[in-house]
Amino acid sequence: MSKFPKFLMATALATLTAAPAMAEKLGLGRAATTDEVAAWDLDVFPDGSNLPEGSGDVWTGEEVFAENCATCHGDFAEGVDNWPKLAGGADTLADEDPLKTVGSYWPYLSTTFDYVRRSMPFGNAQSLSNDDVYAMVAYILYSNDLVDEDFTLSKDTFLDVEMPNADGFIVDDRAETEYGAFTNRCMSDCKPGAVEITRTVVFKGDPNAGASADEVQTTAPAADTPTDAASAPAAQDAAPVAVAFDTDLAAEGEKVFKKCKACHKLGEGATNGVGPVLNGIWGRTAGTIADFKYSKPMMAAGESGLVWDAESLSGYLANPRKYLKGNKMTFAGLKKDADIEAILEFLKSHSQ
Predict the structure, then answer these.
(1) pTM over 0.70
(2) Is CB count within 10 Å lower at the N or C end of the chain?
(3) pLDDT truncated to tens, each residue of the chain (352 aa)?
C-alpha cells in the first residue's frame, strides 16, 4: 500500500534494468546497484511481503510514540487539535459523521506500517529504525484495542492481527464495468426539455432585488477591480440583535463545523486564522471583520450590500466558488441541505 504509484515504480525499475545498455550507448551514468534499487523498493503488501527484519513490543512503542508522535496525535493516539486521531471510531463508519482511524477504517496493517516507516514522524521522515516502526505500530494497535499489552509485532506476528475493516473495501473494477460508458458522448438533444431558470440569487441592495428571473440583468462583480481596503464598509458597532435558534439543531451543526475548523475559529477568544473569525456573522455585512485581508470580490460584495443571512449563507456554503467567483474560499462546499441547515443554526448560536 505504498504512496508511490505502481506504474511509476514499474517505469523506474524498467529504466534501471535498461541502464547498462543506455549507459553504453550514450556514455552516461551506470547501472544501479542492488542496494540502490532496494532503497526505493520499500513497499509492504497486505500479505506482509517485503517486511523488513525487526520487532517491537507495545510498551517500547509507547515510548517511541510519546517522543515522536504525541505532540500531534496525543499521548493515547486520540489526536490534538486538528491533527488526525489514530484510535477510536469503532462501529462509526455508517454514522453521518464517521471517525476514520487505524482501528475503525484502515483495511490492512501494511498500510499503517508502510506509512509510518515512509512518512513519519512529521518533518523527520524515515528517521526511525525498523524496530521503532514495529514498536510504534504495535502501540497504535493496542490503542485501538486490537492487541494485548504484551503483544510484540514482527514479520512472524504481522498476519495475526485482524483489522476490523478488512472486508470494507472491494476491488476497483470500474475499468471493466463503467469506463466504457464514459466514451459515449452526447452531442445533441442530450437533456430532455428546455433548460429553465428556477432560482435567482441577488445581493441585498441590488437594484434587481425582487425582480422576476426574466427581469434580472446579471452582472458579476469584477474580480480584478482594485478596492481600497480603507473604504470597506465598517462593521456595525451596535450590539448584535438576538437571533432565535434551535438548540438541538445547533448541536448537530457543531459536528458539521469540524469541516471548517482548520480555517475558521468560533467561540470565546476566537481570532482570525486562515479565514476570518465567525463570531457574530449572522446579519453582518460581508468583508467587514477588522484586520483580515479579504479578497477583492468579497470586499466588492460587501460594498454592494451583501449581508450574511439564511439565504446568502446557504448559497455560499453550498458552493463558495460559484456563489462569489474569485473569492479566496477553497472549500468545495457542503453537499447536504441538512448539513447546511444545521451549521446555520450553529452560526446563529454564536451570533447573540
Answers:
(1) no
(2) C
(3) 444 455 555 555 565 555 566 666 777 888 889 888 877 888 899 999 889 999 999 999 999 999 999 999 998 898 888 889 999 999 999 998 899 999 999 999 999 999 999 999 988 999 999 999 999 999 999 999 999 999 999 999 999 999 999 999 888 888 888 887 776 667 777 776 666 666 665 555 555 555 554 554 444 444 444 444 444 444 444 445 556 778 888 888 888 888 787 688 888 888 887 789 888 888 899 999 888 888 888 999 999 999 999 899 999 999 887 888 888 776 778 888 998 998 888 888 887 6
